[in-house]
Amino acid sequence: MNKKLKKQNRSLSKTLITSIVTVLVLVGGLLFFTNDPDKTKTKAEPKEQSMDVSEENFDRIENGIHLATGLVADEGMQLVIQNCTSCHSAKLVIQNRLSREGWQATIKWMQETQNLWNLGPNEEKIIDYLAKNYGPVSKGRRQNLQNVDWYELQ
Amino acid sequence: MKRRAFTKQLSIAAMASVIGHEIVFAEHLPKNYVPLGLKDPDPFKLFDKDKEMVVLNDKPWNIEAKAHLLNDDVTPNKYMFIRNNGRIPQNIDASTWILKIDGESVKAEKSYSVDDLKTKFKHHTYQLTLECGGNGRSEFDPPAKGNQWTVGAVSCARWTGVRLRDLLEDVGIKSDTVYIGYHAADTHLSGDPYKEPISRGIPIEKALQDETLLAFQMNGDDIPLAHGYPLRLVCGGWPASASGKWVNRLSVRNKVHDGAKMGGSSYRVPCEPVAPGSKVEDSNMCIIESMPVKSLITHPKSGALLKEGQTLHIKGHAWAGELEVSKMEYSIDFGSTWQRCTLQKPVNRLAWQHFIAQVQFPKKGYYEVWAKATDTNGKSQPMVLPGWNPKGYLNNACHRIAVKVV
């Protein structure tokens, strides 16, 4: 009993310390961010290497693609961001092509084994989005070589 | 109004997901403020990888090479693929790292520090082929779920460590030992501390092989963090998932290890071949052991333009799981005819072998150079996709590069 309490206490103080450190880092970061002229410059001219996911940019969509995540901008996308990308990268969604049943089975598997929560009425909307935008493409037994980058061999 | 509140909530959730943990006191953040942690880390710098490597996934990290990057005889870190299942452990201190040995079939539980392993046991060095079970998954039809590897989830580095056999002998194991399962310090993507991202293992026969190591060095240096520092199990020729990273516990089991990703369709294929897209019951799935025969043309890079009459020198590697590659061939007519390549012996068992050939083209035009390896059991690589399976494992179809004679 006493041991358990001590353990709880320890983990509580750990959380508290982590929180304080996080806030310090955030505040420090804020000072650094607002004071560093170079940082504000990069904001004006977006560079490819470091994606700026500030609040107004987070919702930016270009050519039908949500820039911050790479997901196809369509109904249900925000539900996918909220429910899927808190554990894994959107890149894992984007590189997959599954049928409706396949996505449904994947969600079920994540719920049974990976701690995914109950999606409630959002489940249908998420599956609709995934099946429509990330459905299977038939590839046959072997595809042609694609995107060959031709160069002169010395 | 409602939409704005929703957006704000979404952004905080999204930001937290980018950072990888919850933003404490997020509601107090100044508006439009972006924490520094949100600046995407540059994975190439972070893991000391070449810029040409391909990032398939950033949470968890999954990065692969392209065929031409794997040209070295011994794979350097900068070209080595990363396949992680969970989050990389933080703040590792090798001086306090403990490897615990437990399980039903251990005579008595025992613990070792990394220093114990380094000083009390003989060191061995082997070059070992490690290939992700899902390498080539992107080609399967219907598509299989998971990271869509093309050809670059394979490596053959030089590993140094102690034999698992010597360690097990020191610990003392019972005669009913069936399997050795590993446990490691990486953490589950969901953040649940009681969940292991992956905990696989190997049958005792594989554990007792000369080349099965508990490694603390890769290519003569400490193992890079992303590849399992400070201690990694290394089992060449088997799906690389058997080579557990950041290992801190081994369980000596009297049954097949039942850790995370040992069941269902994880690293298992149908025991009997099935039609593409079939649903397969768990009871009809068998654990992948030795990887199938395979090869890769690593030079030149696909897309070479040649002058008429110019000879093309090709180079590459071939490997065959537990077996050796006995014959290496190439074709420039889509497999109608095959020519022999010069093939070297492996530097040690379970290391890949190198091949070279001089290729002549009869006239101008578009060609594909196909490579086909044959193992010591007479099995060769298929030209079309091999048997479909639910998770898209073991695609060992012939590799090919495009060439134009102009």
Automatic annotation (TrEMBL), chain A:
One of its GO terms (molecular function) is electron transfer activity. Gene3D superfamilies: Cytochrome c-like domain (1.10.760.10). InterPro entries: Cyt_c-like_dom_sf. Keywords: Membrane, Transmembrane, Transmembrane helix. The chain crosses the membrane at residues 12-33. This is Monoheme cytochrome C. It comes from Flagellimonas lutaonensis.
TrEMBL record, chain B:
Its cofactor is Mo-molybdopterin. This is Molybdopterin containing oxidoreductase. One of its GO terms (molecular function) is molybdopterin cofactor binding. GO terms for biological process: sulfur compound metabolic process. SUPFAM superfamilies: E set domains, Oxidoreductase molybdopterin-binding domain. Residues 86-259 form the Oxidoreductase molybdopterin-binding domain. Pfam families: Mo-co_dimer, Oxidored_molyb. Keywords: Metal-binding, Molybdenum, Oxidoreductase. Gene3D superfamilies: 2.60.40.650, Oxidoreductase, molybdopterin-binding domain. The keyword NADP does not apply. Residues 287-405 form the Moybdenum cofactor oxidoreductase dimerisation domain. Coiled coil: none annotated.
